[in-house]
Amino acid sequence: ASFWPLASTSTQEKLLGGLLVPGFDERSCLSRYRSAFYRKNMARSPSAHLVKRLREHEALQRRCGPGTEAYRAAAARLRSWHGDGDAPGACKYLVLVPYRGLGNNILAMASAFLYAVLTDRVLLLDRTTSLGDIFCEPFPGASWLLPQSFPVRNLQNLTGEVRESYRYLVQGDDAAASVSRRRYVFVDLDHSCTYHDKLFFCDDERRFLRRAPWLLMRTDGYFVPALFLNPAYQEELDRLFPRKDAVFYLLAHYLFHPTNKVWGLITRFHDSYLKNADERLGIQIRVFDGDTPFQHILDQILACTSQEHLLPDVVTQEPPRPPAAGTRSKAVLMTGLSSWYYENVRWKYWQSATATGEAVSVYQPSHEEHQLSGYTTHDMKALAEMYLLGMTDRIVTSGWSTFGYVGHGLGGLTPWVMFRPENHTAPSPPCRRAKSMEPCMHGPPFYDCRAKQGADTGKLVPHVQHCEDMSWGLKLV
Ligand code: GDP
């Protein structure tokens, strides 16, 4: 197998090129320092500037996070708000309210974290989801989970309609002054959000939102490409990410460490079914038209893997070529809510020999049948499967799926994306190699911050382009 033997993994490799700090208790979160053993090498290394900013951010989370005097003071001001304006030098916070599926949550967390780093805000996560059960804490000596006693209740019910909404502030006469008069500012980045909500992406927080100690944000997706279009952050982002195609990859390796239970699911599956194969192919199937099996989607999977030479053809005439000694083995990891596609692909390679003589084994860790949310075991399986997809060598994903984006993004893999079928027919071509390993932003702004007018935001800078799977979406390349 092509994985590094344990002994040769140096401390620098274990710490992912400086992304991670030593000093965490290893046993309480095994994945943190062991994931390097399961990876061939880092697809991209962090820049020295990113490493420096991460260390500074950790210090901020420690100084201002839950349990500190600074947090108590900020929460107390929020609780008994008298419209008393700025508290100079106080810590500033970004509370993220993630929602929808786990893939959506992960992309939202990565994006919010980058925004928090850019704006020196402490990132805290609303804990109505199972995120606290499936991820270890990323920051040393500070929790990123919002305390239960947080004064604003029912965060999941906040919408862009609330009085504190950015949407209204930005339309007011003196937005900067009105920020100071609000308890908090709510930024709604749901994909139903309005033109005015999206002006947030052009906001220079240093002049305006800086005055808001509490920023509450609702988003279910990856908004990093929009940050790259905001002139206020351009210089800093250039220094943080000299290569623009691995922002999610680096942020994800910094932030997301599965808890021991999830890590057990990952490593046992990997060691049993994937490790010893000569090559691993991931196929992620996400169907948005319902949970029943569809022939056209099976056709699409088979057409894609055949046309792109990801899986060998089978021979139909008997007798097949006798397998040579030392046959190459290919392990196929399929993920999806249904097992029907997996059964069919597996049967194809069981029923017939491959033309190349390769041995193809096909596995699917779970088939949950229906999407659920907030159930810890269900989310554990979903996370394990995204992570396992990232441990393959090549990957085919379903367009539009944030689950798939996380799978290939974590693995540093540029996927073959299957286009979303229309009218129940397999599209032609069935799939295409993506331009980069980055996730797609689904609800981008259509506004040029510099020119202050509507624009095709996929044409403003070379490293922000439209996605393969969603023509209006934006991704970093
Ligand atoms: P998206 O809807 O494809 O963008 O991905 P999300 O992860 O946001 O939401 C889909 C949810 O459905 C996941 O979080 C899981 O709860 C479930 N799900 C979808 N596909 C799979 C799969 O292949 N395996 C497992 N275990 N769960 C899945």
Automatic annotation (TrEMBL):
Give the E.C. number(s): 2.4.1.-
What GO CC annotations are associated with the protein?
Golgi cisterna membrane
Keywords of the record, alphabetical order, are: Cell wall biogenesis/degradation, Glycoprotein, Glycosyltransferase, Golgi apparatus, Transferase
Q: What class of enzyme is it?
A: transferase
Subcellular locations according to the entry = Golgi apparatus, Golgi stack membrane
Which membrane topology describes this protein?
Single-pass type II membrane protein
Family, according to the entry, reads as follows: Belongs to the glycosyltransferase 37 family.
Annotated function? May be involved in cell wall biosynthesis.
Can you name this protein? Fucosyltransferase
**Organism of derivation:** Panicum miliaceum
